[in-house]
């Protein structure tokens, strides 16, 4: 009998992905108390400021110098899906859009023909640590959509579907549905919020799914079968051990599984957490250089030229590492001036 596991992959900060996904980063930083200016109340001595990925003391400054994160940088030709399980992100972009999101929110940004944005991690609490846990997933765009207008969308935690199912022993599994419909064992259909209109995920035939699955100790859960021909990967990012159809699996590994087969998952350790990335391959040539993902070398060269000439609309903000103050709550300001908060959707 063929194993349900087609491939096993080790995990570090940057996770291996399959078409239509390009990249997945897992940021898990135990930031200290804030210093009142949204940075860490700790010495930065010994860190490679501007390129701090070492994880000293359990956290990183990344490309930030005062506030951790990623100051203004460009993208073209794909989408970023940023799912923040814990902590906050301050967003600003060349369209004039901005936001502070986190605590379960997802930002879905279609770069399309080009956008600059910054992603800073404000340490808003001065009286306690500021841990952050997030996934940033890069989802490719097909050739026909690579030059669409940029699009910025917020999927607030309060509106994102989460369902809990029980196994025969009463143990529970929670499934958070960021993208892709989930059919529960009882037949309930859990539908996600709508992805951006030009996304590969916007066509249901592409079967794009992004789920976060939490199994309590000793829980069993079945990943339902999907269509044939999909790339389907489960990332085991927290917990200890388990089984897929009786085969042993361990934390800090990814498992590529057959998309048209159901997978019986049993957690044999502490709380187990998985990220599911699934989708129909775009199956087009990929030429990538840093933040630009196109189909041909010539298109890549054009992307660099266009950015040099236009800066993708320029940078309308005061700082390249723009943040939104100490007292701001979660919000989104869109390019058309509309302002939205989680409770106003």
Describe the structure.
By secondary structure, this protein is mainly beta. The protein folds into 2 domains: about 140 residues, Jelly Rolls (Sandwich), CATH 2.60.120; about 120 residues, Jelly Rolls, CATH 2.60.120.10. The chain is about 5% helix and about 40% strand. The protein has a 7-stranded antiparallel beta sheet, with no helix packed on it. Strands 2-3-10-5-8-11 form a 6-stranded antiparallel beta sheet, with no helix packed on it. Strand 14 and strand 15 form a beta hairpin. The radius of gyration is 20 Å and the shape is globular. The N and C termini lie far apart (about 50 Å). The mean pLDDT is about 95. It comes from Marinomonas communis. This is Pirin. It holds the Pfam family Pirin. Belongs to the pirin family.
